Amino acid sequence: MSVQFVDSSKLPTQFGEFCIHGFQDPQTLKEHVVLTFGELNTKEAVLARVHSECLTGDALFSARCDCGPQLQEAMRRISEHGSGMIMYLRQEGRGIGLMNKIRAYHLQDDGADTVEANEALGFGADQREYSMCVDMLAHFGVTKLKLMTNNPRKLDAMAKYGIQVEGREEIKVGHNVHNEGYIATKGAKLGHMFSDDA
Ligand SMILES: Nc1nc2c(ncn2[C@@H]2O[C@H](COP(=O)(O)OP(=O)(O)OP(=O)(O)O)[C@@H](O)[C@H]2O)c(=O)[nH]1
Ligand SMILES: [Zn+2]
């Protein structure tokens, strides 16, 4: 999936002043954004998060997942570090879209886990792909990342695209009584790496 840069503006936030950069896939018209903070030092690994859209977690305070707290923690760490970037990818529901994610949540309400629910709806457990990051990173001249993630698929994807991941920071926040099963399933079935198998 290739994307083209559209425009940038300032984005003041509770974590300091970021810039927001719009990118669009000319074929699907899908819109993605990159948030940057400070001056990116492209000679070194840039502190970064690849974050998949989660309307319920990122914007609606859902406790079913850990997405909102992870996004906030990534912005906080970048601000504290003084520079970094977040690639915010519009691939809601691990790529199945919002309506299907709600269907999947309904199945989870009835006892399925997050992977079983996707599969019952005829989808793969995780339908995301990350090729749009290549154009985004090229736009900023970034070739090396320090990635904030627990997800090995993101590391594999970057390696596949020739982007060096020089380090990984675990991002383990937002665990609560409502998402215990969800997080356990990520560890057990999707390979997420948690330091104490939370
Ligand atoms: N289909 C589906 N998608 C979900 C569910 N819960 C969260 N998501 C989506 O999953 C994506 C977040 O993926 P996760 O696997 O939780 O985390 P990750 O971002 O891949 O990995 P980290 O970098 O470690 O946070 C977002 O697109 C969410 O909308 C669910 O129960 N079903
Ligand atoms: Zn979420």
From TrEMBL:
Pathway: Cofactor biosynthesis; riboflavin biosynthesis; 5-amino-6-(D-ribitylamino)uracil from GTP: step 1/4
Substrates-to-products reaction catalysed: GTP + 4 H2O = 2,5-diamino-6-hydroxy-4-(5-phosphoribosylamino)-pyrimidine + formate + 2 phosphate + 3 H(+)
InterPro entries reported for this sequence: GTP_cyclohydro_II (IPR032677), RibA (IPR000926), RibA-like_sf (IPR036144)
Positions of transmembrane segments: none
Gene Ontology cellular-component terms listed: cytosol
Superkingdom, taxonomy of origin: Bacteria
HAMAP family per UniProt: RibA
Function: Catalyzes the conversion of GTP to 2,5-diamino-6-ribosylamino-4(3H)-pyrimidinone 5'-phosphate (DARP), formate and pyrophosphate.
Protein's name in the database: GTP cyclohydrolase-2
